[in-house]
Design goal:
alpha+beta; 5-stranded mixed β-sheet; 35 helices
């Protein structure tokens, strides 16, 4: 600790630390920095508050937590040997506790104790270890909050308030000499339970049924219910103090007796070492990278397809926010994936800033302007953007379809999907995979076991009814989602991901680029009105073909089918029959089939023969026979058409509904403007206003950077100096806390001299509100009735009016 005398308080222990150690405390517990403590005493007080201690305990690994739990049931203060004995036992058990485990505890205990000391949960020298009082209260046993160790209260705690007569009865039954002093009686009973020889002799006389009762209580919970007329075994234990009354119906096994039965161990299974992550399969690293690259390309194309699906304005936003179940099903069908997978892609596009709500009165989801920029990037860069957004996102798509705490359904893109632990769990899972040899796929159960060891309190915080805690579920979702995204391949971590985890997305994209297939500039047209793309297509070719044909199947090769509706869609976008013939001839490695040419010509001949405009709406056609045919068709009844002229029909529906209705009847109408020109509809017309990606919800205060840590430590040191400095004026006065008092002339001369010599002085200062304070300043400049100085108390440069300085005093040597 660097002191000659042991610290008496946590503040004294912190005061003896160097700057690096204080910075380590603030780094491990960043909540202590909000705001920056004024001095060491304030830092120690804040470090002992319940909320801060709970947060610190939640970030301990299992063995560090077990060490703290052992200190909570140890005497206060406890020597190091006592703590070690509570973790290793006294070696007199039945062999359940192996020697190698004891050696592992001996090796790991200094590190665990160092962690507790660094985080200011434990302080004091090794011969007087003290657990912070708040942590002791949180981890100590009580009927309402049993100890994690399963131990009950001590004999002294359990017998508090017990009558002297009852204590005498217990001493007599246990074969101890009588004493009229309750304190001596408790001491004698405690000495009996902690003496292995005498305790063994007492238990040798116990009935077998009584020993069976102790076996049920020894590892916790130590409390049991008894009837007014207990059975003989329970009565035997109660008479000898092995079971002490807590209430009229409850008894408890005292801590000292339980420790004897446990051979001195506080925990049944101490876990000094983290469980290893086991391998489930060994794969060829090249095969892993190839599989991951294929999945990465599929991820990029899937997000592209999602953006195209919502290009003209996606599904409406629910009043409470998010997608409806029906819209999620439609999206899943369009992407040809299960609904949970569709929810993942939707949330990923949203987290990457590619999707958002448009903010209109009829609010809908649509691509953002950033989606157009993203679509122009190379495939490897698009993947890197998606993977980076996924790693940092706190939105958790695995929750979609579940319920919140109030029983309300959680929807995709809804407001309640943020879980602040998600990024940390994702990074930790992938870091564990990175520690395995290349090509090794882990066993998921061992990954979960490792995470529970690293954050046992978080793992124990599962809500009632959950099969596993949230962190474990996020870990399993991470393994599944990383496979979907190409982070892993065949269960093993891919080599581009290792660069991504190191914080180099550009390097990750460069490693992925050679593994991706080269885009093609051709397709294979077939006589059955299909086109086969034997690989990924160049972007202009894919966009044009997507407008001219419908995707029939995906896989290593994509099959497109040409239909009258798909050809009409291309004509609606402004293409002509000649344009389509030229496009197919230029990009097909096979001759254009005659049926496809006939299909294009036939649809083009009929396209625009009917014209739809706004009256409410009307149908115009130069061929009266066609209009007669429409009026005679029973399917047109819902459109409520009537003839206005030989070549014009009016309808009571809007133009869009009239277009859809006639197309369903097999016609190929075209919309026209008020001037009679054909309206061309182009894809990608609807975009949201500029939107930024959602900001992840942080898990507690962010970890401060080194610059902030250094400034905070200097500010704390400065506040400590101001609070504890000895000044000459205080030495000569009976009231050391009084403000210095000097004349204006003397004040001016003293601060001018300090500015010339660069020394610090102690001043009394009264601000504009009349609040008086003491400050330690180093004057820099004195002019115009003001003194500019470095204020050690505030750790910054400040300017003070000389007339508000009550006095000045030099600091003692």
């Amino acid at each position: 600790m660097g002191t000659t005398t042991p610290p008496r308080t946590l503040a004294e222990a912190l005061r003896a630390r160097d700057d690096e150690s204080l910075a380590g405390l603030l780094r491990a517990r960043p909540d202590l920095l909000s705001p920056v403590p004024g001095d060491i005493t304030q830092l120690a007080t804040r470090a002992g508050t319940r909320a801060s201690v709970v947060r610190a305990l939640e970030h301990l690994d299992r063995f560090s937590l077990q060490t703290a739990e052992a200190l909570a049931v140890a005497p206060d203060p406890a020597p190091y040997a006592t703590l070690l004995g509570l973790l290793t036992g006294d070696g007199q058990d039945d062999g359940e506790h192996r020697d190698d485990a004891g050696a592992a505890i001996v090796a790991a205990l200094p590190g665990a104790l160092g962690t507790l000391r660094e985080q200011a949960l434990v302080w004091g020298e090794d011969d007087r270890l003290r657990l912070v009082r708040t942590a002791r209260e949180l981890l100590s046993p009580s009927p309402q909050h049993p100890s994690p160790t399963g131990l009950g209260p001590t004999v002294a705690e359990a017998t508090a308030g017990m009558s002297p007569g009852r204590l005498q009865e217990i001493l007599a039954a246990a074969g101890l000499p009588a004493t009229h002093d309750p304190v001596s009686a408790v001491t004698a009973l405690t000495a009996l339970f902690t003496d292995r020889t005498r305790m063994g002799e007492l238990l040798d006389t116990a009935p077998m049924e009584a020993l069976a009762v102790l076996d049920r209580l020894v590892w916790g919970p130590p409390y049991g219910e008894v009837t007014p007329n207990p059975t003989p075994p329970v009565k035997w234990l109660r008479d000898r103090g092995l079971l002490l009354p807590v209430s009229t119906r409850t008894v408890v096994l005292p801590r000292e007796a339980a420790l004897h039965l446990r051979a001195g161990r506080a925990h049944r299974v101490p876990e000094p070492q983290p469980p290893a992550v086991a391998a489930a399969a060994e794969r060829d690293p090249q095969a892993v990278d190839s599989a991951a690259a294929g999945q990465a390309f599929l991820a990029v194309t899937t997000v592209e397809e999602l953006l195209k699906t919502w290009d003209g304005g996606g599904p409406t936003v629910l009043r409470a926010g998010g997608l409806s179940v029906r819209e999620l099903k439609k999206t899943a069908a369009a992407l040809d994936v299960p609904e949970p997978t569709a929810a993942f892609w939707v949330e990923l596009a949203y987290a990457a800033g590619l999707l958002a709500s448009d903010g209109e009165a009829d609010e809908r989801y649509a691509p953002t302007p950033a989606a157009d920029d993203w679509a122009e990037l190379p495939a490897q860069d698009r993947w890197a953007d998606l993977a980076t957004a996924w790693l940092a996102a706190t939105r958790t798509s695995g929750l979609v379809g579940g319920q919140d705490a109030k029983g309300r359904a959680l929807s995709a893109l809804g407001p309640d999907l943020d879980r602040s632990a998600a990024p940390e769990v994702r990074h930790r899972v992938l870091a564990l995979l990175a520690e395995l040899p290349a090509g090794t796929a882990p066993d998921p159960e061992t990954v979960l076991a490792r995470l529970r060891w690293e954050r046992p309190l978080r793992g124990a915080a599962a809500t009632a009814g959950d099969a596993m805690d949230l962190r474990s579920r996020i870990a399993l979702w991470t393994l599944n989602e990383s496979e979907l995204l190409g982070i892993t391949g065949r269960g093993a971590l891919a080599s581009p991901t290792r660069a991504l985890l190191a914080g180099h997305p550009a390097d990750a994209a460069a490693r992925l680029a050679p593994l991706l297939p080269e885009p093609l500039d051709h397709v294979l047209l077939q006589a059955d009105l299909t086109a086969v793309a034997p690989g990924p297509l160049e972007r202009p070719l894919a966009e044009m073909l997507g407008a001219l044909a419908d995707i029939e199947s995906k896989g290593g090769a994509t099959v497109y089918r040409f239909t009258p509706g798909s050809v009409r869609r291309a004509l609606d976008a402004g293409q002509t029959a000649a344009d389509l013939h030229a496009f197919l001839a230029a990009h097909s490695r096979t001759p254009v089939p005659q049926p496809l040419s006939y299909l294009i010509d036939d649809v083009a001949r009929r396209h625009g023969h009917l014209r739809i405009g706004a009256a409410s709406s009307y149908v115009r056609c130069d061929d009266e026979a066609v209009l007669n045919e429409i009026l005679a068709d029973k399917r047109s009844a819902a459109l409520r058409l009537r003839r206005l002229a030989p070549t014009v029909l009016a309808a009571r529906t809007d133009p869009a509904s009239l277009l859809d209705g006639l197309r369903d009847m097999g016609y190929a109408p075209a919309a026209e403007s008020a001037d009679g020109d054909v309206l061309i509809t182009r894809a990608g017309a609807h975009r949201t206003p500029p939107r930024t990606a959602p900001v992840p919800v942080p898990e507690g205060p962010p970890v401060p950077d080194p610059t902030l840590l250094g400034a905070a430590v200097r500010a704390i040191r400065a506040g400590e100096t101001a609070a504890t400095v000895v000044h000459k004026a205080a030495e000569a006065t009976a009231s050391p806390g009084a403000l210095p008092r000097t004349s204006s002339a003397e004040t001016l001369v003293t601060v001018q001299a300090a500015a010339m010599t660069g020394s610090a002085v102690w001043i009394g200062y009264v601000n504009a509100e009349g609040t008086a304070s003491q400050r330690v300043i180093a004057p820099v400049r004195v002019e115009g009735g003001f003194v500019t100085a470095y204020d050690h108390t505030a750790d910054e440069i400040r300017t003070y009016p000389l007339h508000r300085i009550t006095g000045v005093a030099e600091l003692a040597e």
